[in-house]
Amino acid sequence: MSPIENRFPKFTIERESQRRPLKAKASVRSAVKGQIGGRLVDISEQGCKIELFDGSVKPGHRVIIKLETLEIWVGYVRWIRENVAGVYFERPMHSAIVDHLSKTHPTFEMP
């Protein structure tokens, strides 16, 4: 292992449930920055990964996420890498909703 690799140890996060890939535009609001906007990249019952249009949130920030006709989901930013954020939901999303979202917003275009 190189000296640089020693300075940046690898870590893994134990997931409570399987992530499902998707591509869905979302309304994202932060109490600190207001309207941010973004696109969901993946989702699980406990959280999601969002590509932010304005990456000005920080870990610990509370965010409100709204997709189409679904109710709002509140969560907290757990991590940020460039313009991508990991969000942990305040309350779990039902697995049927997660399944529906992943099927109606696939990551690829249907012919």
TrEMBL record:
GO terms for molecular function: cyclic-di-GMP binding. It holds the Pfam family PilZ. InterPro entries: PilZ_domain. This is PilZ domain-containing protein. Residues 15-93 form the PilZ domain. It comes from Novosphingobium ginsenosidimutans. The lineage of its organism: Bacteria, Pseudomonadati, Pseudomonadota, Alphaproteobacteria, Sphingomonadales. It comes from the Bacteria.
